[in-house]
Batch of 4 targets.
Target 1
Amino acid sequence: MTVIELSNVSRWYGNVVAVNDITMSVGPGVTGLLGPNGAGKSTIMHMIAGFLAPSKGTLTVGGTPSWGSPDVYKTLGIVPERDSVYAFLTGEQFVRATAKLHKLPDVDAATQRAIEMTDMADAADRRISTYSKGMRQRIKVAAALVHDPEILLLDEPFNGMDPRQRIHMMELLAKLGTEGRTILFSSHILEEVERVSGTIQVMVAGRLAASGDFRAIRRLMTSRPHVFTVRSSDDRRLAAALVGRPYTNAVEFTGKGLQVRTNDFGAFCAQIAVLTRDHGIALRELLPTDESLESVFSYLISNQAN
């Protein structure tokens, strides 16, 4: 069942195109919106939440356009990337105020439930001004969950969280997804998305570069051409050993060692240690030189175009 539907949606600000002709469907479960900073993820989130109107195309939530439809907030919770909290309130007061705005029949029970879900009970009586970034994120999630929404939008929810907080939040989102809720969260970190979601929507420069099961997209990312810098005890012998291997496209000497181009990420990483061992060469350094998100996503864009 499709809950969030975007059809040929664009959004521009003057001559700047933030989102360009996006068609996307999001149903129950956890979906990750992945892309580098500036890809248009927040703009997508704001349009789905009804904060912005599409400049072109149609966008519906539960079959109803979100822009100009306040009733959408009865079933939708949102955690924006920017802080949207009153720092002079305690965590409990902030969540309680949100519960009152939703006119919930039992404000006390709803507030306590949301705070406990996000593991914030121990800090609920403290002012938000004393919270760390990770704690502020979690109290924002509590406020978004207080009315038990069917749809949850989270923009970079793991920013500022320590490892324990991240694991707890990932487990919470996964649990909510298995209950049949529709959860869309954005991130610029692939690991965060694939740890939580089964479906990924990949955005680059306002465009949808890839969409589908994260395993297929991960294979597409790792099977693209890669460049590694390799330093060893004998770069010339290693270069000779690498030439002609099925996973080696090219080997070049540089001032920092060998630059090796490969079209098989997995095979190269698995075989380089074996190769150096068999030839009596000490492997000192192995670094990918093109692993920025921008380079990965640019490859997805070019692959889609071809």
Target 2
Amino acid sequence: MKSMFEMIREFPSQLEQAIQIGASVSINSHSKKIQRIYVSGMGGSGIGADFVSSFIKPYATLPYIVGKSYEVPAFVNDETLVIISSYSGNTEETIECFKKIITKGSKIICIASGGEVMRMAEHYHLDRIQLPQGWSSPRACLGFSIVAQLFAIYKLGIIPDQFINELKGTINKLKIESNSILEKAKHLASYLEGKIPVIYCADSIEPVAVRFRQQLNENSKILCWHHVIPEMNHNELVGWRWTQNALAAVFIRNTNDHPRIQARIELTKEIVSHYTQNLIEIYSSGDSFIERSIYLVHLLDYVSVFLADYNKIDAVEVRVIDFLKSELAKL
């Protein structure tokens, strides 16, 4: 079984493979005009949908709504494109939603490597994107999830094809800067060792912060939290009132963030610095929004693995989640 480090190292190659898979897929048109998109997915598949939602905002005219629950919103109907996303194909919450959605006449596209999702897709003669099997950790398959969803909606004419060149530029950047990314990740992990990260970013790149939080939880086995600016300035900022040097404020930034966001971050840094001596900024790099976001994902994924190494923890292991699933299966 591959280590988490090896799986993260293969991320650029995964993106290349995902583009090949997406380009070869045929998606049938829908009998009714699609008015909205609903994605059902949890964990690594759910965060993939969050990224797609942020990537397509500048040019998609339909809402892209992500559901991470057993429940299906009432707006899901025969004018809704539904994407069922589960790397394993056996995610409990996603399968329950799938069974409910089947009755609604929605256009459905299934994205999985196998499991019950693919069995149901075949049974109901639904469009499907088959992902490669053999990845032991679904959270390491973020590239497959993002790219498959982008191609699914591109093939239906919902978004233009510019994302393809942006993804190819991203892959090239990650390969060229691989050594630099590793060195930055080691430095960041060393700084965060033994601390509780408090992650802040502009609301436009919240999926990056969510992904980092989830990777710190699963790979590094530590607790942390995140918030977005400007919303954080309307509530959490007041919580910084006492010295708490166990906390490390992590500001994830883009040089092209909205000017008022930039100003808010600078002021937030000044306020937070009175209550913790641990404060660090992490800047994105890249020519497009997709490139900057995925650069940060790759960098911060490595940080989570190096933190696990420092603490002599197996980044792949998620025994407590396995235990939870086994106990739920008994009910």
Target 3
Amino acid sequence: MIDPDKRKAIYSLYTDGMGIREISRRLKISRNTVRAIIVLKGNVPDLPRKDKISLDSELLVQLYDQCEGRIQRIHEKLREEEEIEIGYSTLSAMIRELGLGQSQETRCDQVPDEPGVEMQHDSSTYTRSIGDKKVRIIASLIYYRYSKIRYLKFYRSFNRFKMKCFFHEALTFWGYAAKQCIIDNTNLARLRGSGKNALIVPEMEEFAKGYGFEFVCHEIRHPNRKAGNERSFYTVETNFFPGRSFESMEDLNEQALQWATVRMPARRVSKTRLLPLKAFAYEQSYLQTVPPYVSPPYRAHKRDTGQYGYASFDGNFYWVPGTDRAEVSVLEYSNYLKIYHKRKLLGEYDLPPDGVKNQRFSPKGQPAPQHQPKYRKKPTDEEEKKLRSVAEEVSAYLDFVLKEKGISRHRFIRHLYALQQKITAPLFINTIKRALKYRVADIETIQRIALLLMNEGNYTVPFVETDQEFRTRESYLEGSTADEVDLSRYDKLTEDNDG
């Protein structure tokens, strides 16, 4: 099929005096085709299909309902019951033309790129290697539609509070906000409804007003309404992740910040050759300036002060200055904490790196506290590592027993480690092999197995060597000149027991 533009070009060349043979040679089209196009004066022939089959639309709708939308069955019924021979693809096309089985959706609006009007936000989940572990992470990305600049950050989890923290961090970094932020119908910002009928959560609506923008939900199944943001996630997958390694979440976000705010703004957009940094400089006069006095978002938590002056939060302990054990308010910000008592600031603390738990922290500028928290957990990582190094059988047993329900992990490991310290290595290994064979997950039963093996075999208690030079130590010499200890009081106890 020769397209209309080429047909017009052929006819134009012919009217300008070029011969049919020359036109055929240059455009690589047969001379007969050139002649046919010239006869039609370059127009596309409007010839009706001779084999076109006409079907009653009411019949098709009726069969579609009867056959529950199964086109293959409709095709069979037309051939067998109605004696109508029709191709399967032709039948499918007719059903599509009638709109059967298709959702009656409106086309997504195409909005022009206007400076200062729109930014887009979305999140996407990935599984990446951080350090030596595969970790599920959530990428949050904001995208300015006109200038194409971005801000990217990764989280272990993402909720409404972290969404507010992300917007504050991104908008204060760039210093400007567009009038609208296009989002999907996420419950983090949407209260109910969808698309143009969506009602934004009052908390998020008030939050957005503080930065000079409003949230707008796109219509359901219209993700292309924020195509710039979707394309940005594709760029993250194809340009940011490949060839990079990350030691920690902090390292990941540090690289993401440099990539999104330094490298990408200085790289021209492939199709339009637009330079985001220059476009953003032009767009700034149309954007809403972020007020310098805007307060960062925070969450308030109530905590009791422990016996040794600690308030616990998110698995860690924060020492509270003073001597009272009163209830305090812990204000959680994006990357730091503030502790108040009766509106008085007692201390400010940097949040620890991702994954740090069971640690204690002092306020900025103050030394570490002297005492440990009362309820600080006592992990058994070192004991477990030593047990696994004894033998492969011990490591296999730990893999089995620590998966069992009802097992107190740390208590069990401490008792097993204590048993390993009391008996010889061969006896301990044989005990664990038998415990694994019979799926024993009770520490008392393991101790009885060890006792049984000791009675059956020739196991002996390991000999403990004593350093004979203890007699020359100063403490021993001082004790040697002391008076003998009177133990006669124990003789009476012995006599009573014998009696």
Target 4
Amino acid sequence: MGFFDKIKQGLEKTRRQMGGLFAEFTGENEEFYDELEESLIMADAGAATAEKAVEKLRAKVREESLRGQEEVRAALVDILAEALEVGSFGLRLETRPSVILMVGVNGVGKTTTIGKLAAKYTAGGKKVLLAAADTFRAAAAEQLNVWAERAGCGIVRHEEGSDPASVVFDGIAAAKARGVDLLIIDTAGRLHNKANLMNELSKMRRIISRELPEADIETLMVVDATTGQNGLIQAKQFAESADITGIVLTKLDGTAKGGIVFAIAEEMGLPVKFVGVGEGMDDLMAFEPKSFAEALLS
């Protein structure tokens, strides 16, 4: 099953919400535009994004004299896809080793995403190493170890409660010694308070930059699609310390709304790199803006 079909399934809740809306379009119909804006907001796209998209659609309908329902839907697909074009959707991982630093609150699917990324790049011929730097959550290293075994890659881990930065340091040393192509680092999603968490992330980033000054580094924030605007708040908090390069949107399982990707793109200028559409190893898919917008309005 391809990206479009998987996302179409994952966005079922929003598609039902948007369903039938375009049947109400009859030219210059203010009620249609009001309902469309409300539907986008309800889909977690955010008020600013919804208002901007509707205004662009209104202008396009007028300028191009669009009349058919399918014409208007296609125009909105283009507008929404363009709103998501805020950066590169691929990962820059050309150095040896390269680093992916994974951040996000507990419960968003971070460990699962790391496992899927490890499997993806191992299958692609890269030598992958995981670093279990979430040393505060009980059994976090054990869970990551299970994924390392599934993916067929190595792991560096310390005892629970160890200094996370020391795990990162040892992970980098091991990556250099073993000729690893890609080091993927798990991080804590919660400490005693937000300041501690952000200080730890900043410390890790400094160690990576000092020990691997020439390395390509991607910092991916994992966001649970079912959390709506909370995902945007989380992204803003982590961006203060983590220098985020992209978003991984997880749990598009039919109950998610999915519009949060537009709010993050609009307010933070961050591209979505991957979407998680299930629990299987191959259920992490590279993001396609046009297909995502198509699926949302299909």
